Amino acid sequence: GQMNLTSPQNVQVDIINTNFTLRWTWNSENDFSVTFSAQYQRLFEDYEEAVIEETDWKEMSGCQNVTVMECDFSSAMTDYLYSYNVRVRAEQGEEKSPWSTTLFFTPYLKAKIGPPGVHLKSINGVVEINISSPEENLSRRMWTSDIIFTYNAVFWENSSNAEPKSRTLERRNKIYDLAPRTTYCLKVQAHITSERKVGSFSPVYCIKTTDKARILAYPINLEIHALNMKFLLTWDNLYDQNVSFTVQQLIGYLMSLPEDYSNNWTTVSGCENITITQCDVSSDIYHLGTYFFRVKAMSGYNKSHWSNEIKVDPCVVNEIGPPNLTVSSSEDSLRIQLIPPGESENKSMSEFYDLSYRVLYWKNSSDAEEKIKEEQQLLFIISDLTPLTWYCLKVQAFSPVYKKNGHFSDAICIKTLNGKDSPLSIFMAFVIAMFASLILASFCIFSIYHISRRIRYTFFPSCKPPSNIEDRFGSGQPFSIPYLSTSEEPTENCCIIESIVIEETNQTDIKEYKHSKQNSRDSGNYSNDDDTSGAKVLEEMLEQEAA
Amino acid sequence: MINRSLLPFSLMLLLSSETSCLDCNRIHVLQSKMNSKSLEHLEKMGGPFPFQCLNERSAFKATDILKVRLAQQENAKAAIQQILQELFQIFSKNLTHAAWDGTSIKEFQNGIHQQIEKLEVCLSAEVEKETTYPGNESLLHTSLKLRRYFQTVRHFLKEKQYSRCAWEIIRLEVSRCFLVLNILTKRI
Hints:
Chain A is α+β, with helices and mostly antiparallel strands.
């Protein structure tokens, strides 16, 4: 008999990394002779997201004659950044249902992030966590950049009821401060912050820590101290015997790459086989970028493991030293000239930071309060001070973007000058004023003389033009005066709005009009003939007033 | 649903220690510093554009990065981070034929990587504050356009088998990306 196949419903696409699954529903009784087939077409968009080209419908490989209501069509997808249309139909023998509604999608926008890979290792009480990206070592990748992901781990101690903790992880991590012979568990998810995409969690991984190594202990408590971009690495001395140390450095970004970086550690020059527990590592730090450092202890043939790795972000760990300053005083102000911190050592901190300066100043008496002034310039003046008074001040540099305050300079004290005018200065002022007024007066006299000559020459010329020239202009036309224009200046044809208003508002209350006329005159509201907008404004005003 | 999946994400942010030592409202200061330093490195790593590659220059037909309609103000940080991530990825592989100064490449990469991390701190803080997703659509579309552009860059290098001239052409193209970065930096 006749049997009309219905179209599949609720067509949807699920994408995890580069795995594409098509799903749909079909509202009919189970009939195993019914199969489903899907088609797709590619779309190409321009900058404005408008579709500019579409291909013909093609059969979707992986989704032909399937008997279940889902299929994997990953192999049909070639470009994840442009869009596709897909549709499905049911088929039974020769009979075919109409196509389902077309589903439009852009793989990259729809794709979800799969779980990352987690690899745990437990060595000598230290747990190593290595994370691989959700698509590590795959040739087809949805997320093309290795460093697009940040990893978030949730971890807990297996046997306790403590709340799970959460923290971001690097790709490579060494966790040192764990209890021995304890089982820890964790799960990790990847996310792309800039696109607000959060991936799914990995399975839970657990690992039991081992006892600490019985060999020479590795150095602990690595710290970096820096002043004006001079970096000193320090660590604790745990050792009774004679021990020497070696420091290594790794350029920061290598830690985020999937490749093995263990051969990229380099020994810091001057920090090899040293016997003290500190070393200057400045030579290996360039201020842009991050670095890792690690230390190893050696005693004879005994070697420790490498210490934990300390991450150094130069501008963050560095402390800004005090600026150099010179101060001079007048009667009511102090003039301050600064040299940025580090400039004397040829490493000006203004190269690395967005420096501003904070001055603390106070009267050098017991009950004086401190005042603060902030400046971006290297030369500035503190004014409104009392004459003949001792003032003290100190200055620090600070970087707003790093929220970092530098060290204060030593306090400098200076006395403001005498405010009263001495007889000598009065005399000097008098002489200068005399001299200045003399120059001014002579200048005035000279210019009056000059101008009057010009006027006389223009309006009352002493010499008449030769008679033949006068003839040419005709007797009727007087000889024109050169500095006066005779042609009429072009003027705009203007009128006062009032006249229009009268026409348009004749019907309205005349009293109201008079009131507004006053307004219009006050505001100088004039307009060209053909412009009635002014009138409209007035009209509105009238209506408002009437209301 | 989205909120629930973000819960562990925000928990993580509470524990993130780096947030405290950076004023994200002033991150443009660091960004413009990085832009100019990176351009310097780019210049230094290979010197002037070589003559023998002039003929091949026309071979690169990318959608023009300058024509990509740029992110709106609220998404400028995200767009900058995406561009930096793509640049970092491009310069991290197959550089043997480029014959460039190794130190300059490392410093270029390290500077970009550090800035990506700083932007990450600020972006995470922003995500934490968001309850809804303003401009999420436009954010993803900007991202899509940028990724399409960088896909053409990667395809070009692959097609030219990472030859010296292909790399030189891309080095030139990347300096144009920094123009876009400068524009975006002003919008942060």
